[in-house]
Amino acid sequence: MPFKLIVIILLLASFSNSCQRRKDIEPDNIFRFEPTIKVGNLNRTYTVVLPSNYYSEKTDLPLVIAMHGGGGSAKQMEESYELPEKAEAEKYIIVYPDGIQSDGLLKARTWNAGLCCEYAVENDIDDVGFLSKMIDKLIADFNINPKQVFLTGMSNGGMMAYRLACEIPQKITAIAPVACTMVTTKPCTSQNTIPVLHFHSELDEHVPYEGGIGIRGINYPAVEKGLKFWAENNTCSNTSKITKQETNYKLTQWIDCKNNATVSVYLTKDGGHSWPGITKVRIGGDDPSTALNANELIFDFFNKYR
Fold first, then answer.
1. Whole-angstrom Cα distance, residue 223 to residue 22?
2. How far apart (Å, rounded) are the C-alpha atoms in residues 281 and 226?
3. d(Cα 85, Cα 188) in Å, to the nearest integer?
4. Exposure of 85 in the CB half-sphere (CA atoms within 13 A)
5. How would DSSP label each residue in 144-177?
């Protein structure tokens, strides 16, 4: 056999094997990942769920990061608040990060959002560093539009959303916190416009809407104190306006903000410390509000900034 022909055959075989190897490791049709990244001396974990159109459309998609409350977990966040179905319907990549686990008996996970909460605050855990690094890695590893990174979170997770908006605003498009308040302890020096949609209940005793002593004995600032900060930051109109008043909730907004942003809060008369509109109730938790569906409103809000 001529030498040139042998070389060609060997090259073709090598190319075929190389293609086969690449095909074997390509993540086609894998829609769930559980990566680990190192931040300082800690291994941090998160769960990534891709929508069904991820591989077929091959376009950059929006990202929503959903942060659990104190004592929860990425798994609990995914299972409790009916977000996977809505993220799939709206074709978002959704990520559930884990707060740091305590060394106590309950191994409770918390976020260092400022005043709250517990182990993460007591040990000055660098959650901003973790979540900032996670966002960078997600954008590097997946087809994500870096201008469409949205945050939501329950309780301590919602507080963390506020802190991220303050400290890495260049990476955040909008936030939709639930049943929390802004508890940052460092000056919030954001120069970026960050639209805010907040959900709360008048009956919430864990994080009182008007401020005061709540869960874990913390003296929480009033919810509207944080909202007024973002209204000023976004150069909205000076005063809030009740734009919708129903028997079981009201919507208050600061409007005429930069870049078509809004700062809004839905305040329900039922629900307590819970995620409005869901059908599941966390063991030992308050019944969810039936006044509105937070997931529908959250994704409608995020869609405005896509």
1. 51
2. 28
3. 34
4. 7
5. EEEEEEEEEEETHHHHHHHHHHHH-GGG--EEEE
Contacts made by residues 17-23, CB under 8 angstroms, sequence distance 24+: none
- pTM of the full structure: 0.90
Nearest Cα neighbor of 159 from 137, 131, 135, 123 is 131
What does the pLDDT look like over 176-234, one tens digit per residue? 999 999 999 999 988 899 999 999 999 999 999 999 999 889 999 999 999 999 999 99
Query: Residue 127 in contact with residue 116, Cβ under 8 Å?
Result: no
DSSP for 44-60?
Answer: EEEEEE--TTHHHH---
Helix ranges, the chain (H): 3-25, 54-57, 74-80, 83-90, 118-122, 127-141, 156-167, 223-233, 294-303
Token pair listed for 198: 């907040």
- Structural domain boundaries in the chain: 1-30, 31-303
Within 10 A of 7 (CB to CB), how many other CB atoms are there? 10
Q: In CATH, which superfamily holds the domain spanning 31-303? A: Alpha/Beta hydrolase fold, catalytic domain (3.40.50.1820)
Tokens of 212: 């005061």
State how far the alpha carbon of 242 is from the alpha carbons of 48, 105, 288, in Å: 37, 45, 23
Confidence of residue 2 (pLDDT cuts 50, 70, 90): low
Count of CB atoms within 10 A of residue 38's CB? 10
CA angle, 285 as apex, 216 and 112 as ends, to 5°?
A: 40
Number of H helices, E strands in the chain: 9, 15
The conformation of residue 243, written as its DSSP 8-state character, comes to E
